[in-house]
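Re: the 351-residue chain
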Amino acid sequence: MQNPERVELVRLRLGLTRIGFAQALGIDRKTLQRFEDGSDFSEAVLDRLCRLSGYPEDFFLKRSLEYPNRDGVSFRSLRSLTAGARDAALAAGALAFELDDWICDRFELPAHSLPQVNNASPGEAAAAVRSFWGIGERPISNMINLLEARGVRVFSLAEETRHLDAYSFWRNEKPYVFLNTAKTAEHSRFDAAHELGHLVMHRHTGSGHKSAEDEANAFASAFLMPPADLLAHVPRVRCLDDLIVGKKRWRVSVAALNYALHKIGVISDWHYRSYYIELNKLGRHIEPNGIEPESSQVWAKVLTALWRDGITLRHISAELSIPDRELSSLLFGIAAPASSPVNSRELRVVK
């Protein structure tokens, strides 16, 4: 029988309301309701569904998928995030579970080594995580790789909405982070650090309380730009160009560096506002002296190992009955074999 929950997932991924979905399938709302109550679609409607969505018929005949628990999910930009965009992102999480479980049946990925930091300020929590990981106060060259090396599952989102930055949660003792790749590389790095803050500070208290987002932002700022390192390398700022040049060390946005230096007293209130106004004149989505986007090392190594065994992303797509475009959008667009060798100490194949 066709599984209504899987059809609902596809509707969410398409970003359609129930009425819009019914119209796209050429049926009325009552027909859709009967399907949701347990009746199968006709072959003609199922064919239209497959052509509309790009999902094969087999996808709709399998068991229900597991979704991220909404109560345990930390969403950035929650106030401005529409229900449709949120639900589409959670549906992407359900697809990621299918892919992650398939990969974990074949590979042993790094176990997580995230400390839980309770009853500490965000700055203290950031310093504690750096100390626990033994990275001192040096700049972090690649946030995604750092998280992956500590056992965080990092997936990408190709959601075309500026209101969805990232989200994170715990599942079966595994930490997950989803990053919207439509953002600038600097923005994405900050999002990754922000979600790390939620994972280490709010696992047991939840991230729904009023101050959680501010705490995660403060954590991200201190984690990416330790105050002592800031003072050592940018003791004074004379103009916006100093910030544009200085941001290169920490690979953050000019706005984030402006905020961090203002917070520790290097930049006055007046200059902070002035630099912010200058940046807005350049355009909110324009990042001066931008950096290259980060990508996943773990997924590249997994796909390389599979490719060497003759298994491509298209093979995985066929086995899971999930379009390869959906899988690719979860894996940072990595579809070709990676050029770097597989490090057996980081990735163990289970066969």
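DSSP finds 16 helices and six strands in the chain.
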